[in-house]
Write a structure and sequence with these properties.
The complex is a heterodimer of chains A (112) and B (116). With 112 residues, chain A is mostly beta strands. Chain A contains no helices and twelve strands. In chain A, strands 2, 5, 6, 10, 11 and 12 form a six-stranded mixed beta sheet that branches. A four-stranded antiparallel beta sheet of chain A has the order 3-9-8-7, with no helix packed on it. The mean pLDDT of chain A is 92. Chain B has 116 residues and is mostly beta strands. Chain B is 0% helix and 55% strand. In chain B, the strands form two sheets. In chain B, strands 2, 4, 5, 6, 9, 10 and 11 form a seven-stranded mixed beta sheet that branches. A four-stranded antiparallel beta sheet of chain B has the order 1-3-8-7, with no helix packed on it. In chain B, a hairpin with a 5-residue loop joins strand 5 and strand 6. Classes of the chains: A mainly beta (112), B mainly beta (116). The interface between A and B is medium-sized, with 24 and 26 residues.
């Protein structure tokens, strides 16, 4: 069965520090992978997506993610975190050409 | 992308009443929309796929008679929670499918439903 695992429920980093949020998926076919961010009171915003091609994907707000097929992973990274990055981050995999399956999310807290 | 709105943003109702939530695609003609439910500190769970002009497709375990979905136009889908009970209290989020081949979706801001 298809699934997405985000092992870290809560991560705390200092402003300016680097960030990596982990995501592992289980899907038999070529995955379409997404990272979304959800801020309080706001909808999910697409940070980046991977469909094919270059396995290092650049997104908005300075985020990037790398698809590693051998590890079934799609980890999200940012070299220097800003206080405004504090939010909930969701990894998702597209299945059956229409549905998205979401991970349980990682809450990011940023200290000044 | 697509700009998606939801109305209301929050609603409180009494147990036994019905509540309608609207999802509008403001700048994109959406053949397919999705309805999700999100419990506090949990992930989004797909409830149903809403197809314009046809019946919605519900996920396993979702009561179709309780969660009525109507997608009468390319810009509007509605979710009606019928005979709401406290356990229906949740955050309901809709999305618009913009890339059929690649599962790409844009999301509304969500509706917080509290049933007393």
């Amino acid at each position: 069965a298809q699934s997405v695992t985000q092992p870290d429920i809560h991560i705390t980093v200092s402003e300016g520090a680097s960030l990596e949020l982990r995501c592992n998926y289980s899907y038999g076919a070529t995955p379409y992978l997404f990272w979304y961010v959800q801020s309080p009171g706001q909808g999910l915003q697409l940070l980046l997506k991977y469909f094919s091609g270059d396995t290092l994907v650049q997104g908005i707000k300075g985020f990037e993610a790398e698809f590693k097929r051998s590890q079934s992973s799609f980890n999200l990274r940012k070299p220097s975190v800003h206080w405004s990055d504090a939010a909930e981050y969701f990894c998702a995999v597209g299945v059956n050409t229409d549905k998205l399956i979401f991970g349980t999310g990682t809450r990011l807290q940023v200290f000044p | 992308g697509a700009v998606v709105s939801q109305h209301p943003s929050w609603v409180i109702c009494k147990s036994g009443t019905s509540v309608k939530i609207e999802c509008r695609s403001l700048d994109f003609q959406a053949t397919t929309m999705f309805w999700y439910r999100q419990f506090p500190k949990q992930s989004l769970m797909l409830m149903a796929t809403s197809n314009e002009g046809s019946k919605a497709t519900y996920e396993q375990g979702v009561e179709k008679d309780k969660f009525l979905i109507n997608h009468a136009s390319l810009t509007l889908s509605t979710l009606t929670v019928t005979s709401a009970h406290p356990e229906d209290s949740s955050f309901y989020i809709c999305s618009v499918e913009v890339g059929q081949a690649y599962n790409e979706q844009f999301f509304g801001p969500g509706t917080r439903l509290t049933v007393l």
